[in-house]
């Protein structure tokens, strides 16, 4: 794997390992992270180990840990899932687990690094994502990273008894290359 570093943002990406399991579970179960996920059920060790076995180990997903340059402190995670080799596309996801790292542009920088990985190493053509429509900060970050809004699916999911809209966004390799990838 090539190195994915953004010195200006002070981060780099490294592959997720099984040793990251406890930290990922802690992050995913925190209210501040969980509230922005479409699937908000508690995250378990068994669930994460199943994710590694059925998705990471099979090549259907790739997950990286966002780390701080210097001391290597883990700040969050980025991943692509449901890698589709027929259509050369995958779904993107991110969470910043370290509360002190939020609102500093780290999510945008991590998305750009992950896009470089997706288009460069994975050879994908399209990276898409789904976001809750009221997650305005994340949507702005995705736009800064190069994603474009494609659709709003009204009342697409039901969370805590309320229907919520989902925004679909995507970036194509050609978009990314034209923007200076």
- Name given to the CATH homologous superfamily: Gcn5-related N-acetyltransferase (GNAT)
Gap between N and C termini, in Å? 18 Å
Side by side, the strands of the main sheet go 1-2-3-4-5-6-8-7
- Computed over alpha carbons, the radius of gyration is 16 Å
Total domain units: 1
Q: Tell me the total number of β-strands.
A: 8
Provide the β-strand percentage band.
35-45%
Order of helices and strands: EEHHHEEEHEHEEH
Detailed description of the structure:
This protein is of the alpha+beta class and 181 residues long. The protein has a single domain (4-178), classed as Gcn5-related N-acetyltransferase (GNAT) (Aminopeptidase, 3-Layer(aba) Sandwich), CATH 3.40.630.30. It is 31% helix and 35% strand. It has helices at 21-29, 31-34, 45-56, 106-120, 136-145, 173-178; strands spanning 4-6, 11-15, 62-68, 74-84, 89-96, 126-132, 148-159, 162-172. Strands 1-2-3-4-5-6-8-7 form an eight-stranded mixed β-sheet, with helices on both faces. Strand 1 (4-6) and strand 2 (11-15) form a beta hairpin. Helix 4 crosses helix 5 (136-145). The longest helix is centred in the middle third of the chain and has 15 residues, at 106-120.
